[in-house]
Amino acid sequence: MPRILAIDYGTKRVGLAVTDPLKIIASPLEMVHSKDLIQFLTNYFTKEEVEAVVCGYPTNEEGEATDATRHVDAFINLFKKKFPTMPLHLQDESFSSQEAMQAMIHSGSNRKQRNKKSGNIDKISAAIILQQFLEEN
């Protein structure tokens, strides 16, 4: 059964999450460097059946574009060129990183595990974005 993949795009690191085959639960998948993202997606789409991609879209509290929005817009354009037949949905990612940090603290993660460079927060943020998308759709 095809899955849905989520992307929490950052200029350095990208968090990825994926649904279970029944599309009920979102789970962290991987953290990749943004320069390697298109190659990772190409390989992943070859190995796994993916029916759609959800990309976190950054806005501020008023729903307006942020500094990060232009980077995500550039990625979206590249994604559409590389994967023109893959459905792409945008999901508000407001506060997903803060929610991911809180989830890690509540799960007992130590400071090193929560360190942004480890990529854990990026993967968990992607899972939060995907779970919100699943709940809304």
Automatic annotation (TrEMBL):
Where found in the cell?
Answer: Cytoplasm
One GO BP annotation of this record: rRNA 5'-end processing
Q: Which parts of the sequence belong to the YqgF/RNase H-like domain?
A: 2-100
Q: Which UniProt keywords apply?
A: Cytoplasm, Hydrolase, Nuclease, Ribosome biogenesis
A molecular function GO annotation: hydrolase activity, acting on ester bonds
Q: What class of enzyme is it?
A: hydrolase
Q: What is its EC number?
A: 3.1.-.-
One cellular component GO annotation, for this chain's record?
cytosol
User: What role does it play?
Assistant: Could be a nuclease involved in processing of the 5'-end of pre-16S rRNA.
| Family that this chain belongs to | Belongs to the YqgF HJR family.
The UniProt entry, under PANTHER family, shows: POLYNUCLEOTIDYL TRANSFERASE, RIBONUCLEASE H-LIKE SUPERFAMILY PROTEIN (PTHR33317:SF4)
Protein name in the entry:
Putative pre-16S rRNA nuclease
- Source species, please? Marivirga salinarum
What is this protein's gene name?
ruvX
